[in-house]
Each structure stands twice: as structure tokens, then as C-alpha cells.
Amino acid sequence: MPQPESPLNNHSSHIEQMTHLGNRLWQRGWCHGGCSNVCMVTQKDPLQMLTIVEYRDRSQLTEVDFVLVDADGNPIHVEPTAVPPQARLYSVLAEQTGAGCILHTHSVSAHFLSIRLAALGGLLVEGSQVLKALEGVTSHEQPLWLPILENSRDTHALADGVRSTLQSANTPLHGLIIQQNGLLSWGRDAAEAIRHAEVLEFMIECIARQAH
């Protein structure tokens, strides 16, 4: 009996882009233990996204390392155990920001600051020319707020916290930090998302070095 066609067969372009991004994050040292992630929106209505299975080596991704999920973060074509628990966060980000690509990075500096500055609820990034690489930022003097959210094993509660943070922000956000869970950043497409991730991780590292 012939095997049913995999839904992933229609997403070779997305998989190619995400494989490149996953390897790029791995090269930057932001993928410790295969815990970082890349997510791309493949369909907006109803929302569907492609993301990477948890704990897979981001430097050696193949098609079996990807999973298609719906707006609730549930798998469309594989067992639920293959879906990263943060998939619900990615769907909330896509819905609230219109992002086409979302990156979840785990740098040492972001982990350190998420603990050190948790009581402040976030950190202010300003004063660097690299900030002008962020969409909508025209001056290095423009202060930007990077929220730090308390982590939770309840992904639905955490997703609600992400939604509330985005909706209550006074200015557009380019990223946010989950305490002891890493940086979430996004963009309209893969190119914008990786640019935002690199800028924010650079600023995070600068602040972390000053905090020592």
C-alpha cells in the first residue's frame, strides 16, 4: 500500500531557509543542547507554522527534524511528543505581530540578564548604531524596551503572558526575554528576523558585560 504524502513536501523552501537559520544560530553559540528554535508561518488563515523538533542538532537538520503545527501549537502530521512546548508561544507572536519568522535563541548573556534583571521587568537598550538595523528605528538614541517575562511550565499561561505584554506595550517590540528560557525575536521574513536577533543579542551581551 502506498504511503500518504507528507505535508512537508509542500514546504521545501521553508525547510531550506529554516535549515540555514538553524545552522546560523548554532554557529553563533545560541543553540545549546538543541534548545533554540526557528519558526516560519506557512499559512495565515487558518494559521499554520513550521518549527523544529526539540533537542535536534541545529547544525545537521534534515526534513524529519521539522513539524507542522496549527494555531494552538498542536501537531498536524506527527505525534504530539515531537512538538516543542514553546510552539504555542510562537503562534501567539505570529498572531499578535504579523511576523512571518520567529527565532528563539539561548545565549549565555540572555540567560544571565534574565535572572539579574528579572525584578526590573526588562532592560533598556539604547546608544548603539546597530539598533538602526531594527525595523522602524531611525536613531541610535531611540530607547527600546526589552521585556523579561517570568517563565512557567504552563505554556498556556506563558502564552497569555506573551500576548498581554505585546498588547500593553507602548511602542512596538522587536523581542522579549523569557526568564531562564532565552530571547524571542521576530520579523516579517527570515532576513528581518535574523537581523533583529543579531542586534538584540549584541545589545544583551554588551549590557551583560557591563553588569559583571
What are the secondary-structure elements, in order, as H or E? HEEEHEHEEHEEH
Our measurement of the CA-to-CA distance between the termini, rounded to an integer number of angstroms, reads: 63 Å
- As a whole number of angstroms, the C-alpha radius of gyration is 17 Å
Q: Biggest β-sheet: count, sense, barrel?
A: 8 strands, mixed
Structural class: alpha+beta
Structure annotation, total helices = 5
Q: How many β-strands, per DSSP? A: 8
Strand order of the largest sheet: 3-2-1-4-8-7-6-5
Please estimate the helix content: 25-40%
Sum up the overall morphology in one term. globular
List the helices and strands and how they pair.
Blueprint: H1 12-27, E1 37-44, E2 47-52, E3 66-70, H2 87-97, E4 101-105, H3 108-116, E5 122-125, E6 144-149, H4 155-168, E7 175-178, E8 182-187, H5 190-211
Parallel strand pairs: 6-7
Antiparallel strand pairs: 1-2, 1-4, 2-3, 4-8, 5-6, 7-8
Describe the structure.
The chain is of the alpha+beta class. Helix content is 34%, strand content 21%. The protein is built from 5 helices and 8 strands. It has helices at 12-27, 87-97, 108-116, 155-168, 190-211, and strands at 37-44, 47-52, 66-70, 101-105, 122-125, 144-149, 175-178, 182-187. It has an 8-stranded mixed β-sheet, with helices on both faces. α4 (155-168) links the parallel β6 and β7. α2 runs parallel beside α4 and α3 (108-116) packs across α5. The longest helix is centred in the C-terminal third of the chain and has 22 residues, at 190-211.
